[in-house]
């Protein structure tokens, strides 16, 4: 027998498959089909943990995701914090312990796999209780694509916790039949163990499927786009507020019924049932019939419903109407309930012995998703609950979630909603038949929020939110401090902010607030229902987007060669670019100095394939480029290349690169590595929306080419070894020109451009030939000591020449003039983007920041990039007048000293002056210089 | 996750699109003739409408076309305009 | 020197793709070195008509439409943009044909053969595999044979082409720089089918 409180038969568990588990250091046995909570109850364990603020013992209060108390830490199979015992499926070897309201994350990485999948359907049904199943069946029979998801391990919803019959047979027969029918439909996706936790714009819902510990993927996030949604999310029973309402053994009445019928567990031996409505009577009667002694049903209403009274009388169950439980006794478990008569509790309370106190304060429709879908809710006086009011298009909220509480009504409404939804999605759908179910007269509930006549001394024993240990005293404090908005009080008291998101406490707190303020509950309203409906592991949200798959990684055709050199990579946008190529024993600084030296004195090669490339074609291509570059591109001759700067209309530099004229009506434009997509989109913007009359087409060709920069005084000699059809002399192939030819056996477009100031060639070959041409150049260069170099060396070399890097030396507030590149701004054009802004007062200011060079003392350390610059040898009291900051800073092999580029207020007017960089606690003197440090005359570019 | 109706490709997830801000802010025909104040207004001033807003989107991961939609900024409801003319402004 | 044989972007991922394939379930492989040409022209122009005649089929004018000839597949990429796919080595010839048909009219013909490579995904699990990273509705009623779409797969820009809706077969056109990442992603997403 799996636990002394387990019945010999009944329930959906499998007694022939015992499951061993350990909780708080004790070994127990449960059954397949148990939750951790049901297995604990079967073993007589009620207390699971202690409360977060007061350390009070807390037990299992519910049987589902609304559980506010029973938080556990899973230790085995894998550490996972803050799960509710009511939603943990029992499995062999499970090790768990109770939590004091707060858990801890695992310290080791989770070895399980998580993933995500996108799904589309005509009709999504959330919840597979009577309403949801009926809806899914109607919709599925129409041929619509249906997804039906339910958080529970099996379908059936509330029916699983009752002994209700459908068509004069146990309800599970109907459930099984419908589930099988759905599973057999090719266009129906059946998702048990799947919690739909969020509803977002345009019927986009996200769910997490718990596939189990043995599944290849532990959890899967479903991203569902549904044409139509049926929300059959059921309802949660609401507890009651009274002194000592947190003692273990206090449980929602319907949950006790679920433990009985679904798990074959008696949650106690002697129960007091405290209710405001009819539903708890079913629990009293069922538990009685299963052998639980019912001490009394305590009903706040003056008169109990006739049928239930009859059933109780039949069984000798005492009903105390017009009464309430006003206190409990017991230490780790309830041992008695004090019952007083209402309204004023004038008679002395009677003490009833019990080990189980069942409560029912009414039912809260689970309107979370309805509300997230932008449906509105209203407070129903009749039901004492928030019910859906306006429902947005494409959404239907039915069943208990809509405040419909009889099985017959839920089935009918579900079936109609399912066929409606399918019809709306374009299918011929009939309303599928529903099974017959018993229904009886119902007496309206009498919602009660605060018991009258209690002394304020008991306020701090009356819990409103068990998960947050928030009491009536806390709410009274908030109200006393002048708060009246439920949103404010929520934040002040933290009610509704725990793992359960206030499923049991939300409306309860509104009711208590209303009582304390003396207003109607409707006036107080409720707080916003936000996703996630239930806690979701971050791992499930991350899915496979982790590690190397976290974000796309872009590599060039030569990437394997770089990998073979074991070089570190720099992330440039999504690109991986070789940073430097260390030789054995070298650190970064020595590697970069060696690489720089090689380019300045011999020859180096760099993979520059990452630069963006855009083919620009059309009769108006020249006119277009004149508009988008600050300089003039229409005057560029075919065969020649020009460096160009692009500004936004505000005059600020946002990208730069070279422009090759490849034909009368054709150019090839290059962009920065990170800027390619943005530049293309921006060019298309102007072309499509402002200048559609221009006959120009843009095509991205970035990956069409693999591009190799060959730089250094010996570069011409290296190239000459691998090409025979290109005249490499300066006269035939001058600086800033290009030519087509053959390089290392590949068709190639070779350019004379230089980012280092040295004689240099840029060799473009089809992507497919990139690696082979790279290797051929490397071999051809070996006798010249050819040195592969990375982005760091490229940065140093260009900085020595004062060439800015857009995005490093600029930040969106820098004009070409600020960069000292007025020469790149045409004065002969009528207009170009940015031109008008250059005459704005702000861009014409004399104290703008200029890009200048900085020289720290020779022999000193490199001043870090980002260093703030000030004018004095000692820091004045704040606010300190700032001059600017260092944008690039390196050690130069050629100059044998550190140097930097910086944006400095009026920098060009201050050349020769010394200012100070604030590094740590020190002020380091730096001399302002021209930004060009090396080969100012430009003598080296022709070799 | 909004579903944005590309006038060419049809409705797609918003992740395929890039936002282009307020629509109908035209580049002045002759910027040099515009006063500093008006130029600053063109550059920096945009409406921040609560309610129906006409705005531009680019179908970046799709057909790369720019187009205009009207969206209620309080509900994200997009008012469908099936006309391909919506592509240009 | 002789023309080089070339290396496709997924040359080092051939084993990864093959290893991710499960007979009768899923097959992944690279379709390398196809000729690919981007064509831009006004679809209503006489040039568009001439091009249709020259290649043997009218340019598809519906979003997501694909036209086929014996040698070519023509994918709609935009209201005035198409991607033409031909056999390996055919890019020069194809460009010449298009350029000649274009004549003096405004349009553009650009060789993009190296810009993208193709991953072929076939087998009954194809759709499920793609759905793990692609938000498009790939149901047979929504994405049928000879339909294409530019979209995101694993946050990577791709062109998806449905080659066969009944015996599921897809081509994924992916930019060469993203190809390895995508191959690795596909292998990871397909891992569950091997167990
Ligand atoms: Zn589009």
Automatic annotation (TrEMBL), chain A:
Keywords: Cytoplasm, NAD, Nucleotide-binding, Oxidoreductase. InterPro entries: 2Fe-2S-bd_N, FAD/NAD-bd_sf, FAD/NAD-binding_dom, GcvT/YgfZ/DmdA, GcvT/YgfZ_C, GcvT_C, GCVT_N, Sarcosine_oxidase_asu. It comes from the Bacteria. Its EC number is 1.5.3.24. It holds the Pfam family SO_alpha_A3. The keyword Cytoplasm applies. This is Sarcosine oxidase subunit alpha. It comes from Prauserella alba.
Automatic annotation (TrEMBL), chain C:
SUPFAM superfamilies: Folate-binding domain. Gene3D superfamilies: Heterotetrameric sarcosine oxidase, Probable tRNA modification gtpase trme, domain 1. InterPro entries: SoxG, TrmE/GcvT-like. Pfam families: SoxG. This is Sarcosine oxidase subunit gamma. The lineage of its organism: Bacteria, Bacillati, Actinomycetota, Actinomycetes, Pseudonocardiales.
